[in-house]
Batch of 3 targets.
Target 1
Amino acid sequence: MSASDTGSLHSKVAAVTLGFWVMKIAATTLGETAGDLLSMTLNLGYVASSAILVSIFAGLLAVQLSARHFHPLLFWSVVLATSTAGTTMSDLIDRTLGLGYATGASLLAGCLALVLLAWRLSEKSISVSHIASRRAEGFYWTAVLFSNTLGTALGDLLADDSGLGFTGGALLIGSLIALTALASRIKGVNRVVLFWIAFVLTRPFGATFGDLLTKPLEKGGLGFGTVGSSLVLFAILATLVAMPMLQRRAQPASS
């Protein structure tokens, strides 16, 4: 692979900043509410919803892999697709197949670990800031899909089986995310490991926060419903993605 190919692939991954994590949480929360919108509100079921959303993810991923430069709208569309597909895939494993949240989460954690191990053995690194091949990018998106699916299962496990409820689950995961952020300030701590820990944790945070928004008051939620919550979250994510793009376009005109 030529240097130009390496550079174009390297630039296709979003920089890991505070804004990255804010958009990640918004995308995963929207994925939770949009996935529930298809499977439950529209009553398509987990099998049909998973088939539809995985197909959308595969189509967007094909475009992402074929692109030569980083496109924020495309990148976050794929992240959102993995989050939405992960919601219905997790529900399919946990509920339709009857494995339960704990077993489903354990199975998905094992799959994620295997993907990261295969990535490490193949590319000698699992760093998201040094992706220099399409194979590495393929591992990246596979890990993203499994981590988002795992996050849904963990969020449901905390909300339904732990006794913490939606608010308690969100507070627990939020505390773990805060501890991970604090650990990143400690010298010598592996930043790659912390990235993937945070990436996994932000998914159950989004899952529990999504449940908090959509579930009725009698079940511990805020009762906004899947449609209203999805529309609000989509507007927030679209604004967060559009703002940097608009700022970059305005810079040449002001110089």
Note: Residues 1-10 have pLDDT under 50 and may be disordered.
Target 2
Amino acid sequence: MTQFAVLDALLGGVYSSGVSVSEMLGWGDTGIGCCEGLGGEVLVIDGEAFECTAGAPPRRMRADETLPFVDVCTLGDSPGEALRGVDLAGLTAAVEARLRSRNLFHAVRIDGAMARVRTRVTARQEPPLRPLAEVAAEQIETEVSGVAGVVVGFWMPRIYQGITVAALHLHFLSDDRQVGGHVLDVTVDDALLRVSAFAQFALRLPLDADFLSHELSHGEDHRITAIEGGEPRSSPND
């Protein structure tokens, strides 16, 4: 699998450049990422990239559009298994039961009927770019019930937290292309789960002046978990 950029760059507000959709699709047919300026969430499904943003239905992305962060792979023909009546915890357990090793990278795809899905997107940022935690604090959430669609994502080894998102990271796109985004919560009704393992991880880094001039450090495990896992945010009175 291939990744462009590192999560700690987004946490530090360093995401002024990206990789083009056309170049990214040369790396694989399945993946997830984020839009330019963190202005939404991206899914790569069957060799097509879809952008999920606020205020408009998801749409297919143009070849010349860019992504500041993306994970992508060629999913292959991994065997699937039925998944019925499980919440996010049950889904996570089902994925982890199919891991070849907790030290390898795994792509995940789930196709079928979802009883409930809660997703988020973030608003596009303009310079000066803000850290991901600040942007995510203003995320726009959507919840739908009884919808068919596809969930795509990755399970990443814990030792790569900060380079990427450790454990399970999922995005959703409905079959009618009316709703999608980063998965905060999901209940699967009746679907097919596929998991593929990868022992090779190719990391491609930006070469823009913003990235090259900012020395990145990693000390944000708790914030990554809160941002990507959808933990409830504290109210001003807490």
Note: The mean pLDDT is 93.
Target 3
Amino acid sequence: MSTPQPAPIRIVVADDHEVIRVGYAELLATQDDFTVVGTAEDGARAVRLCRDLEPDLVLMDVRMPVMDGIEATARLAADTATRVLILTTFDLDEHVYDALGAGAGGFLLKDVTAERLFDAVRVVASGEALLAPTVTRRLIAEFARQRPTPSARRTARLGELTPREAQVLRLIAEGLSNPEIAARLHVGEETVKTHVSRVLGKLGLRDRTQAVVAAYESGLVVPRA
């Protein structure tokens, strides 16, 4: 008996530049496990499409007319199950920090290779956060440095964490995976998963990417000079 194939990942591409939008759609369509179900030239249309079509993931540009990618991300995170993968420029778009906080599952630079794009779509669509330590932490630290006043709400919520949970949050902010955290703390991976789940629950966070943002935003982790 043959093993049934999983359903393809259903994708919406949102970018205000037609050449870029069409190019990404055509590139993603080359993969057997992807189906591009729609494209949008602005954030408002992206939100409408995602609500109508219920895709697994939207590849979202930040700077778009009518509604930008930040507002669109926040709306989708609030009332849909669609995951958001943000596109940004190489010079660290200042709005990406807000998009991550709004609920984006991760981000890509616009000069990303095709293989990295495919991998990122699969990771974020599966419900995981895209945390590339060499890039994501650099971006978040940069914008946390521009916002030196810790969030009072985030700081207050940190008091609900146990010392071990706070330690796990710091390690998440360093970009460590669950196996790496388990090795660092000399505990089992299942124990780490439990701690991560509790951290997300107590802080009201959607995923690990938001956990990294919260760690910097609260002052738990201080950006390096």
Note: The beta strands are 9-14, 34-40, 57-61, 83-88, 106-109.
